[in-house]
Amino acid sequence: MDPDNEGNVRDNLFNLGYREDLTKFDEPLAPQPDNLFQERKEIEEMPRFKLSSVQENFNTLFSLLGVVGQVSLEAWKLLRTATTNPVLLEKF
């Protein structure tokens, strides 16, 4: 599938009332494991916080954006889920 069309297909399915797992929105969700949405006491325990708050992790992910291919795409996905990097936040 053409990567440009993938987003269009996903948008169209959503507009037609389908979830990403291709079940209709009006169908009940499948039962989830009890530990899927486990509570965390502190935000600092969350992986997305650890990705951005440890400068070495953030720098490594950021450097992977320059790699051609799937690696840079996956690095970009991770960076989009991470919390704001404290060093960059201070600069703004």
Describe this structure in words.
- By secondary structure, the chain is mostly helical.
- It has one domain.
- Helices cover 51% and strands 0% of the residues.
- The chain is built from 5 helices and no strands.
- The protein is flat, with a radius of gyration of 18 Å.
- It starts with a helix and ends with a helix.
- 2% of the residues are buried.
- The mean pLDDT is 82.
Largest sheet: none
Helical region count?
Answer: 5
Order of helices and strands: HHHHH
Low-confidence stretches: none
C-alpha-based Rg, rounded: 18 Å
What percentage of residues falls in helices of 4 or more residues? Answer: 40-55%
Structural shape: flat
Number of domains: 1
CA-CA gap between termini: 39 Å
Mean pLDDT: 82
Which secondary-structure class do the elements indicate?
mainly alpha
Q: Provide the β-strand percentage band.
A: under 5%
Total number of beta strands: 0
